[in-house]
Fold:
Amino acid sequence: MADYLLAFQTGFVYGVVFSLLFSSLLLVLIKINPEGLLDGLPPDIKARYGPVSEKTQRQRKPFVLLFFLILLSVPLLSIRRYDLLTVGVPNYVELFVNVFTLFMVFNIVDLLILDWLVICTITPRFIVLPGTEGMSGYKDYGFHFRGFLKGTIISLVSALIFAGIASLGYLILGKT
Structure:
């Protein structure tokens, strides 16, 4: 029998884990070099600051690898945990609910804590790029909300894909 509440709860817990890992890694990258945040800032700041330096591109490489590992492993661990908590094989919709919840928890944390609280409201000095001090883009709540809406679509598509891959895995393993 489908247990959508348990799928949601498991996705929520792993969404918190995902958010902590992803956000911590992002804050470390920004602390090392605030230019690492440039791609996530409004166009006025990007235009004034200019393109990302080669140094930043090099510094990003290990972080991108870690981001990718987190992006793949945490949803799979959430699916596995949900599988262990349920009786029978999870269906596609349960898997979708689990992973969509996970990604949306991060999307909400990203919007409310990282974007609106840290960037727009507090705007600590370590995230302000040289030459862009005082720019209105740092207070552009709408820019980050539009990013949240894009993140919702990405979460939806990602959850569809992860649930499909997991369902296919169950089928291949004969666990139907």
About this structure: The chain has a mean pLDDT of 95. Residues 1 and 88 are 8 Å apart (CA to CA).
